[in-house]
Design brief:
Helix content is 45%, strand content 15%. By secondary structure, it is an alpha/beta fold. The protein has one domain (2-265): TIM Barrel. It has an 8-stranded parallel β-barrel, surrounded by 5 helices. α4 (82-99) packs parallel to α6 and α6 packs across α7. GO terms for molecular function: isomerase activity. Keywords: Isomerase.
Length: 267
């Protein structure tokens, strides 16, 4: 497996990408960095050039992105503006391609939530329609968009891996697959066995955090990580796993997390 980190979760400087932590990430021995597509898509041209220079100089590549859409956008209901969302996506995907990104997660809970007055069925169809268009756009940039199920506190649509896999099947795009986040699975009490039942051939990327406080994982006793790792092994997953977690001591906690991942997932 390859191990990375979502730096926007630990950002301390304006812009919110966390790029100021990338050299520490490299020194700790992580294999890649995961940066937020929403921030990348909205930054100015010179700011993006500076970010790319920082990535190039760090020795680690930006292989994946998270945080797909700016939070103010909506895809469903009266305030929906899927055209604007696709404009953001086009700019973000173009820049992601320039960075060498292979996958970008599509979590963006508030963006895809179903508002009052819209049925869950209609909301689901609107989301599926958007993802079909997004898949076509992503193919042009040689990037795969990954549906990320998120906890109900963040969205009322697609909260489990089972639901996400059904959506991916309905979208039926070669550029729309699946991401699973251990944190969201744990919060929603979704069994790891769902990865075996629904995940073969669909899962392309994973996130992890300690469910207690969405912290960096450090110890096997914190949660039932073992069932998650075993399920990944059984479906033959040998891709990337990114820490998507908060901390006030990045160097210390990210270092412990990398040791934990190497101990449990091997190299």
């Amino acid at each position: 497996m390859r191990f990375g980190c979502c730096l926007n979760m630990v950002a301390s400087e304006p812009g919110g990408t966390g790029i100021e932590k990338i050299h520490t990430l490299a020194e700790l021995g992580y294999d890649y960095v995961e940066l937020p597509l929403a921030q990348i898509s909205t930054m100015g041209a010179e700011e993006f050039r500076e970010l790319k220079r920082a990535v190039d100089a760090s020795g680690v590549r930006c292989e994946t992105c998270n945080n797909f859409c700016p939070g103010e956008l909506r895809l469903i209901g009266e305030d929906a503006d899927p055209r604007k969302a696709l404009e953001y996506a086009g700019r973000g995907l173009e820049r992601a391609q320039a960075l060498g990104v292979e996958y970008t997660g599509f979590g963006s809970g508030p963006v895809r939530s179903v508002p009052e007055g819209v049925s869950p069925e209609e909301g689901y169809e609107r989301l599926a329609e958007f993802l079909r268009e997004l898949g076509t756009l992503a193919e042009k940039h040689h990037i795969t968009v990954l549906i990320e199920p998120v906890r109900k506190a963040e969205s009322n649509l697609i909260n489990t891996y089972e639901e996400g896999c059904r959506l991916a099947a309905d979208v039926a795009s070669p550029a729309v697959k699946m991401l699973v986040d251990f944190y969201h699975m744990a919060v929603e009490a979704e069994p790891a066995e769902h990865l075996l039942k629904f995940g073969r051939g669909k899962l392309c990327h994973t996130h992890i955090a300690n469910p207690a406080g969405r912290a960096f994982p450090a110890d096997e006793s914190e949660a039932d990580y073992a069932s998650f790792f075993l399920a990944l092994e059984k479906i033959g997953y040998n891709g990337r796993i990114s820490c998507e977690a908060y901390t006030e001591n990045f160097e210390k906690d990210a270092g412990k997390a990398l040791e934990f991942l190497r101990r449990n997932c091997g190299r």
